[in-house]
């Protein structure tokens, strides 16, 4: 499934979570999911609706808004809210209550071709998540025929750099602080071991 065709929706609508708020506990608590989704994610949707109302962007699809505003100083606020909607929806789909374990065969072979082993890939994802100073994201992406790990700051997203996201880990503090305080590595490790949705990543290989 191409990331531009999965659950990414119009900026006028907050997409539903792909799981109940309590489903990721104890790795990510229902309180964290409720706050993260119900306050932060919803806030980006509400803000974007206000920002584009009455403009030529109002009727555009979310991805079009992101691409139209990326890198434009006078559109930074619109870009940040639009990209955060996309990033968050992608993040929720990158998690699954029965995640972790081994990826589907095709994805695992692709990962091993790019990183040597699945463990090396996970270590590189964790390293990217830890190396992101301040708020941002760690991504597994497809760049041509090669799977890579990249990190982005704040609302930045690989889709504006012609990279195809496969999955992401949110390392903004609101993603983990209620459960882990400043222990970002514990959060990232737990997500990679127990929640990461390799099936979603495999679908995004296309």
List the total number of helices.
Answer: 8
Average residue pLDDT: 94
* Helix fraction by DSSP (H/I, runs of at least 4): 40-55%
Q: Which CATH first-tier class of the largest domain would you pick? A: Alpha Beta
Shape: globular
Low-confidence stretches: 1-9
Rg from Cα:
16 Å
| Helix vs. strand class | mainly alpha
Outline the secondary-structure elements:
Elements: H1 30-52, H2 62-69, H3 76-93, H4 105-115, H5 118-131, E1 136-143, E2 146-153, E3 164-170, H6 177-180, H7 184-195, H8 198-204
Antiparallel strand pairs: 1-2, 1-3
Helix pairs in contact: 1-3, 2-3, 5-7
Structural commentary:
With 206 residues, the chain is mostly helical. The chain folds into 2 domains: 30-93, Helix Hairpins (Orthogonal Bundle), CATH 1.10.287; 105-204, 3-Layer(bab) Sandwich (minor pseudopilin epsh fold), CATH 3.55.40.20. The protein is 47% helix and 11% strand. The protein is built from 8 helices and 3 strands, in the order αααααβββααα. The protein has a 3-stranded antiparallel beta sheet. Helix 1 runs antiparallel to helix 3 and helix 2 (62-69) crosses helix 3 (76-93). It is globular. Mean pLDDT is 94; it is low at 1-9. Belongs to the iron/manganese superoxide dismutase family. Its EC number is 1.15.1.1. Residues 13-95 form the Manganese/iron superoxide dismutase N-terminal domain. Pfam families: Sod_Fe_C (PF02777), Sod_Fe_N (PF00081). It comes from Desulfofustis limnaeus.
């Amino acid at each position: 499934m191409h990331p531009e065709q999965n659950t990414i929706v119009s900026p006028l609508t907050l997409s539903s979570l792909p799981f109940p708020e309590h489903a990721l506990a104890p790795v990510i608590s229902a309180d964290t999911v409720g706050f993260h989704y119900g306050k932060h994610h919803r806030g980006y949707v509400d803000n974007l609706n206000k920002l584009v109302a009455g403009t030529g962007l109002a009727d555009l699809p979310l991805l079009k808004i992101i691409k139209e505003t990326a890198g434009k100083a006078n559109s930074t606020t619109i870009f940040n809210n639009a990209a955060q909607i996309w990033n968050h929806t992608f993040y929720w789909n990158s998690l699954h209550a029965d995640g972790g374990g081994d990826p589907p065969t095709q994805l695992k072979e692709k990962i091993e071709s790019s990183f040597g082993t699945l463990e090396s890939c996970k270590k590189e994802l964790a390293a990217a998540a830890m190396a992101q100073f301040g708020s941002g994201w760690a991504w597994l992406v497809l760049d041509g025929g090669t799977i890579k790990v990249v990190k982005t700051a704040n609302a930045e997203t690989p889709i504006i750099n012609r990279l195809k996201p496969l999955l992401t880990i949110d390392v903004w503090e609101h993603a983990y602080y209620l459960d882990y305080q400043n222990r970002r590595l514990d959060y990232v490790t737990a997500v990679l071991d127990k929640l990461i949705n390799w099936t979603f990543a495999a679908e995004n290989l296309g």
